[in-house]
Amino acid sequence: DSADIPAYLKTLNAAQRDAAVAPDEVPLLIIAGAGTGKTNTLAHRVAHLLAQGADPDRLLLLTFSRRAADEMTRRVQTIASKVSARHARLASGGFAWSGTFHGVGARLLRDYAQRIGLSPDFTIHDREDSADLMNLVRNDLGHSGKGKRFPLKGTCLAIYSAVINTQRDLANVLQSNFPWCAEWENELKSLYLGYVEAKQAQQVLDYDDLLLYWAQMVGEADLAREIGTRFSHALVDEYQDTNFLQAAILRAIKPDGRGLTVVGDDAQSIYSFRGASVRNILDFPTQFTPPARQIALEQNYRSTQPILAVSNAVIARAKERHSKELRSERISSEKPGLITVRDETDQATYVVERTLERREQGIPLKSQAVLFRAASHSARLEIELTRRNIPFIKFGGLKFLEARHVKDLLAILRWAQNLRDRVSGFRAIQLLPGIGPKTAGRIVDHLQNAAPGCELLAEQPVPEGAREAWSAFAALIEGLRQGADTWPAPLGSVVLWYDAQMDRLYEDADVRRSDIQQLTRIASSYPNRERFLTELTLDPPEATSDEAGVPLLDEDYLILSTIHSAKGKEWNAVTVLNVVDGCMPSDMATGSEAEIEEERRLLYVAMTRAKDHLDLLLPQRFYTNGPGGTGDRHVYASRTRFIPSGLLNAFAERSWPPAPEPPGLQAWAAQHPDASKPPLDLAARMRGMWK
Ligand code: ATP
Ligand code: MG
């Protein structure tokens, strides 16, 4: 009875508590719908493990983003403080092994580098760097140039990535996901071989390698045992979005599932386009002996009843799902809004006004979020917010890291770490006055084959006029290599050097300078250069309205986010943009039923982020890229197919701006009683003929 329940578990319901204290001999799966407290329960389980004597440094905590990992740590710390003062202290240092699969993988690989034939100085390429390297190899093989229809570098990389993450063979991936590239199978094969060889020669790993090398490493029995015993427990949130390699890694380090806990919701699987497989969570119960214990949670604590009702109705129509019933005790009389606006400009104006109105009503901007399908969809809104001086922070859009000047600086740091990294070197060297791609290419070619030291650096042939600049730069790199163990001091010398180049490189250098300052601030929050480079590459900070970077913590700002980046979060008021066919589902994703189903789950994820207020916006006109990116198109939109007419009365429907009343209509209506009916929408009918 309740007297036996430790205080720190008292806030949980019975099913959540069962999950939190379930014995760790048997693998555990918590599979449940949105807002039922899965993440919350996982945090309690971690605190419970600590209470039972687990060592925080031996817990492997895997979450979807670094931000989610930090949030998890905070939650655990709060709970641990209710266990005892000693446990509060224990948790206060955080968890050495928490983060994303990619982040944790990078650190483990560095630890074991020598044993698996990697240089411990390997550098990590982000997607753009990887595409650049792919392009270099492609050019070397003669697959590019005028008149060639060979797939573009981004497509080549996407195909490669799909093959790695799903571990299916190339022909198979081409046939099912990239049929228009199938004719290039042989050429792609040789391209990928060249790409792998280039990465190995340069000691660079791309995102996919972090998982692939990790999976290969624990594919060796002795390493698997060694790494497996480092971790007493492995706990994974958002398991529905893991891919084949990630599941294989977990199975390798916890072959009998002892100490393994995974948590997720199959109805929220939204990353299959990146190789994630919902099969991981669906098959989990039968993958171990003894089989996993499965716990379902049914009470939703997040959303009001009317919001949950429409969300449930949207997902209930999904073709395939693990059925679950969600209920909420949060009574409210407010129906979710379904608001028709003329176009995206009106949509932006509406959102801004409604946001301010809510702030007046006491809901701070931070408790409000605007969600959208693709990062570009918030463009109008961003303009309007900026015009009205409303601060916002944007998740999932153009990242800080993608800014050219930030990439420049990182390239210098990465190249100093690994002189064989051609892409970083090529970028860094061209920052010098008087050095172009030709010289830069020659230098990186030399160094790629040279011993990994920098004795040769100063002697590299450069054009006469660039001599002096080059020797200063070579000295800078040399200094960075010597100061590799100190941090963030070496960054100071790089910033100083780079600052002197900026006016020549960029017309708007001053604007960019504030980003560099921001980067310096971020850098000093990392313990060393290695952690800084790895985490910034894998999980860069968000872009904000404020050029100086992330708004101060005490400042209020509106949240803008792609739906993908909103996973796991919640806000008091949520507005979803462009809830129209062509956008949700996206024009680009209507190729197969599987793709459409993923779009449905995406809408479900968006709607279930809302606690008290949910507004779906339906612009009657919007621009789309067209199927397959066939160029800008202006389309007349209609309500998404995921909200069938039968569901409309669960919404409060309205138009904005409200249609003006025609003059004299009232007098006329008095004589013609039928005129009180809404006018016929002939325009909509005309459009309907073409749908
Ligand atoms: P998602 O599927 O979106 O990731 P989730 O299942 O992980 O959702 P949480 O984020 O853990 O759900 O919890 C949703 C909300 O419900 C949070 O605000 C959380 O604090 C609250 N909550 C969870 N469990 C309880 C409980 N037993 N009592 C009160 N509130 C709870
Ligand atoms: Mg969660």
TrEMBL record:
One CC-aspect GO term: cytosol
GO biological process: recombinational repair
Binding site for ATP: A32, G33, A34, G35, T36, G37, K38, T39
Reaction(s) catalysed (UniProt annotation): ATP + H2O = ADP + phosphate + H(+); Couples ATP hydrolysis with the unwinding of duplex DNA by translocating in the 3'-5' direction
Ranges that cross the membrane: none
EC class: isomerase
The EC number(s) this enzyme carries: 5.6.2.4
Residues covered by the UvrD-like helicase C-terminal domain: 305-568
PROSITE patterns cross-referenced by the UniProt entry: UVRD_HELICASE_ATP_BIND, UVRD_HELICASE_CTER
GO molecular function, one term: ATP hydrolysis activity
CDD domains: DEXQc_UvrD (cd17932)
Pfam families from the UniProt entry: UvrD-helicase, UvrD_C
Keyword Cell inner membrane: no
Entry keyword ATP-binding: yes
InterPro entries for the chain: DExx_box_DNA_helicase_dom_sf, DNA_helicase_UvrD-like_C, DNA_helicase_UvrD/REP, P-loop_NTPase, UvrD-like_ATP-bd
Keywords: ATP-binding, Helicase, Hydrolase, Isomerase, Nucleotide-binding
Family statement drawn from the similarity comment of this UniProt entry: Belongs to the helicase family. UvrD subfamily.
Protein name (Swiss-Prot/TrEMBL): DNA 3'-5' helicase
Organism ancestry: Bacteria, Pseudomonadati, Pseudomonadota, Betaproteobacteria, Rhodocyclales
